[in-house]
Amino acid sequence: MRIGNGGQLAKALGLPVVYDFRAADVAAGGQGAPLVPVYHRALARLADCAMPACIVNIGGVANISYIDDDALIACDTGPGNALLDDYLLRHTGEAMDRDGQVAAPGVPDSDWIAQALEHPFFDRPAPKSLDRNDFASFTVEGMTLEDGAATLTAFTAASIAGIVDRLPNQPASWIVVGGGANNPTLMRMLAERLAPIPVITGHDLGWQGDAIEAQAFAYLAVRSLNGLPLTYPGTTGVSAPLTGGLLVRP
Question: InterPro entries in the record, alphabetically (predicted)?
């Protein structure tokens, strides 16, 4: 879903506005998401990351952008923070596991994780996308608070690591952005599953990891103005690279 009114925003700002980036992709048979991978590619190239590079964005849902020269592949990998956040909110009133402190002393339930990974979504090829509530029925009720948090955190790490076998080549670098990059317990679990390839955060490269999506849409707006592609067969499933967005002037 999209919120906001481009025309009213342009009038209020007195500036041209580019908006409605997804519609052209959907009309051409794409999924309309994700849109950020083309910006991830620009960041990775500027940072001179070892290629292939894989940028992991962990928000409510986790997704990856795989970058290798001109190859650009993206997909959601599974739950990001949503299951953990909702679990903590129900049981503690806190909206997140700040600094991974609740999950840190817990013991993940490996049998629960193995069963959860049998969900049909994980066998689907990229590109593929999720809603944050698609795994809402997955419950760890009955575990201790710490073990439940650890299990959900480990599930996120396992589902991200599971994408490796579906990529053309083993990534040479992993860079994590989004809220999940601020969770040391999740980062540790992810590093363990992706070893020996190093896992770093966007902050380590000087990126503003919590602002990347906002930056990305400014970047997309400029690409739209120049008629450059925003989406690709490997990111949304559209048949050919495609520009998009609507320009409105004040």
Answer: Anhydro_N_Ac-Mur_kinase (IPR005338), ATPase_NBD (IPR043129)
